[in-house]
Amino acid sequence: MNPINTSNSASKSMIAQNVTLLNEYQALIDRIFASIAANAEGKPTDRPPVEIMKDIVELDKKMQQGLDQIEEHQRVHKKILQIIKEIEAENNAFMEFVNELKNGKEQLEICLDEANETIQAINFSSESSVTADEILKYANRISSYTSAPPNYISGTFAEPPYPDESRMRRSFLFRQDVDIMFDEGDKNDDEDEEEDDGDDMHYIKPNPYSSLEAMQQTEPFNLDLNPDLE
User: Which top-rank group of organisms is this from (predicted)?
Assistant: First the structure.
């Protein structure tokens, strides 16, 4: 049962009782004034003013009890409102606690899933782990199909991939298109020749039997096949 509805019903009942008492009190006041006026005029009355006054005193006691009940009702009503506020605050705190439990449950489920995945990975790695004996057996099995590079000397450092640019320039495939000649010449003759910005240059003598594209090639090739080793 809702305490607010109970309080409202009690308030309506109390108001009705007090209204009834006020109506009776108003009626008794009218009767006592009528009785006093009749006695002053010498007319007979149903009840003397003294008896009517006694009824007013009794009714006043009832009205005072009604006022006490109203004060008690107001005090109880305030207490009920205060308890309702406390219940709402506790309910809000409880809902926050429930939400925290829900978030904690979700985080725990995520942690459990990750833990299960880790356990599965550990079990898989432990079941599929390769022992040293298996590695040695595999190496022994493929040793007959592998060998060191030609002319390999034990203890030497690994060389970069071949061919590099210098070896390509000295190769026959490169020389069949362009003949590189270094013309040192006489210094006195060089003074009569056209200067190229004062820098010492190597002159390229093109091969008359090579292609035009090869004759126009003057820049060095960028043949770095493994730039990560720089």
Answer: Eukaryota
